[in-house]
Amino acid sequence: xxxxxxxxxxxxxxxxxxxxxxxxxxxxVFLFVFLAGVLTGEPSRVLEQxxxxxxxxxxxx
Length: 61
Known about the structure:
This protein is an all-alpha fold. Helices cover 82% and strands 0% of the residues. It has a domain of 25 residues. The chain is rod-shaped, with a radius of gyration of 24 Å. The termini are far apart.
């Protein structure tokens, strides 16, 4: 088994770290967008629309 040079090992570790940072960035952006939606009252609006659609489908509303 051949040993990798030290410079090559350091480079591969840095490349792996770049790949692993991306999921945290995406998760952070998702959480900010989610909180913005909750603070603007979107969940209640979605629930209201779903009630109207269901009542229309069964012929009550």
